[in-house]
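User: Hey, my collaborator sent me this sequence without any context and asked if I could get a structure. I don't really work with proteins. Can you help?
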Amino acid sequence: MTAVTDQDHTEHADHAGDTVTDKDQHDNGRHGEGASEEGRADKRTDAKGGTRARVESDDAPGRTDSTEAADSWDDGLIARRVAEGEAAEQAAALETRSHSAQPATPLAYDGVLRSRLEALRELIGLSRTRLDSRTLAEAGRVLDEASTRRRLSGQHTVVAIAGATGSGKSQLFNALAGVPISESGVRRPTTAAPIACSWSDGAATLIERLGIPPRLRRRPLQNGDADTELRGLVLVDLPDHDSAAVQHREHVDRILALVDAVIWVVDPEKYADAVLHERYLRPMAGHAEVMFVVLNQTDRLPGEATEQVLDDLRRLLDEDGIALGEYGEPGATVLSLSALTGDGVPELRELLGQFVTERGAPARRISADVDAAAVGLRPVYATRRRTGLSEEARDEFAARLADAVGARAAGEAAERAWARNANRACGTPWLRLWRWYQDRTEPATGRLPLRAQADEEATARQRVEQAVRTLADRASAGLPAPWAQAVREAAVRGSQGLPEALDELAARAGRPPGRPPRPGWWPAAVLAQAAMTLLQVVGGLWLLGQIIGFMAPNLGVPVLLMVTGIVGGPLIEWSCRMAARGPARRYGTEAERRLREAAAGCGRARVLDPVAAELLRYREVREQYGKVAGVGGTAR
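Assistant: No problem. I've predicted the 3D structure and written it out in C-alpha cell form, which is a compact way to encode the shape of the chain:
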C-alpha cells in the first residue's frame, strides 16, 4: 500500500507503508527517517520485455509485526487501513517507461483551433511594441502550453481531482483506482504532494509536464473491464486548495493550469465556500466543458437532502457563470456520490470513460484557455466605436496647416503682385514716376515690423501645434488606451520640426521666382499707353511752339492731342486694371493652392502617415483579435 502524509509522521512509514512527505517533493533522491524501504524496488521483467518497479517492505511477508507496529503508533489523529492480499501489492506498483512501449501519438488540433492559435501568435507579435509584457503574459503562456500539449500524447486525458480540506477527494481518487493509493484521514492536510495514476502506458511525458516525480506515479488495480473503460486516463490527486501550507496551494494553482480537465469535489458543509467559488470556479467559468463538480459524502445527508443540496449547488454554479451540461447541452457535469460507500462512483467512472474515449478534452481545454485570454485582452483591443481618420478630419488638418503658413495671405499677396506688375507695365509714365519717388522717400521701417514678424511666427507655431493636437485627439478617439497613446505619440513625434519645415515650404512654394507671367495683350496695352504719352508730348510741344511764335497759331489740334493723351492714358490704365483682375485672381489662387498642397504634403508625410500607420496596425491587431475571440474581424 502507498500513502501520502506529513513529514512529522515519516518516522513510522516502515510500519504503515510507503509515505510521501513535503520533504520528498524537494529532494527526489532522499527519503525521511524510517522510510528507506520506499526506495527498494524489485525490478521484474514483464511479458513484453519491459520492467516494472514495485515497492516492497521488509515486513511484507509477515503482516503481524506491521500491524502491531501500526497499533502501537496510532495516536488517534490519523485513521489508517492496511489492505491485505496480493491486490493491494499490485496496486502499489510504480509506473515506469516500458522499453517495448510505442511512442504516443501527438495531439492534433482541429482547423478552427489552429487558426485561433495562429491568430493569437500573430496578435502577440504585432502588439509587443505597443503593449507591456505583463498584458501579454497570459496569452503567451496559453500559446506555450498549447504548443507543448500538442507535442504530447493525444491518446491520454489528464484529469485532476481538486477539493477543499475534508471533502474526500483522496477517497474518491482511491475509489476510482480501485485500491488505496492516496492517503485519506482526519489529519489536515493529508495530501502533501500531487499523486498521478495512469490507466495505460505512454503518459510519462504528460506526468513529467506536471512536475510529478516517478515515486509519486501509480498504476490502478488491474481490473479488466474498468481498466479498459478508463484506458487513456491520467488521474491526479491534488493537495487541498484551501490548505494552510502555501506550497500546497501553489501545487494546486500550477497543476490546474496544465491539466486537461478537473473534478471539483465538494462536501455538504463547504460546497458554498467563498474561496472555492471566487478563486477557482468563477475564474474558470469558461472551462465548464472540461469540468466535473461532484458532491461527495452524500451518505451523511438524510432523505431528500441530497437533491436539495444539489439544486443549491447548481444555483451557485449558475451564479458563477458556469454552464451546466444538462439536457444534452455542453457544460459542467454535476453529480452526487459517496466515495466511502461507493454509491454513485460507478456512474462517475462511466462518465469519465466516455469523456476520455472522446479524446476531445485537451483541445477543449486549450480552446477555453484561448477564450479566457481573449476576454483578458478585450480592453486593449476591442472598442464599440468606429475608429480611424475621416476625410473631413484630414481636410481640416490640411486647412489648419495652410492657415498656419499663411496660404491665403500668400495667395492674396501674389494676386496683388500680379496686379501691381500690370499697373506698372500699363500705367502712365507720370504715375510710375510718382510711385518711384514715393518708394525712394518712404522712411525706414525700424523695429516694429521685426516684432510683428516674430509675433506672427509664434502665432503660426501655435496654430501648427493646435492642428496636431486636434488631429491626434480625433484619430485616437474610441481607441483602447494603449493604441490611443501610440497614436498620440506618433503625432507628437511627427510634429517636431513641422513649423520650420512649413516656413521653408512657404518661402519656396509661396510664389514662383521671377516676375509674374504677362498675358498676350500686355504689349498692345503698353504700346497704347506709349501712344497716349506721345500724344501728350506732341500736343504740349505744339502749344509751346505757338507760344514762342515758332509755329502758326492753331490751338485746336494741339489741345485735342493733349486732351486725348491726358484722358487716354488713365483710361487705358483703368482698362488694363480691370482686365488684369481675372488673371491676377487666378495667379493668386494658384499660388495659394501650391502652398496649401505643399503644407498638406508636409503634414501628411510628418504626421498623417505615421498616425495612419498606427491606425492600420490597430486594425490589423483588431482583426487578429476577432479571430482569436472567434468572431471574425468584426470586433470593435
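In plain terms: The mean pLDDT is 77. You can pass these C-alpha cells on to your collaborator as they are.
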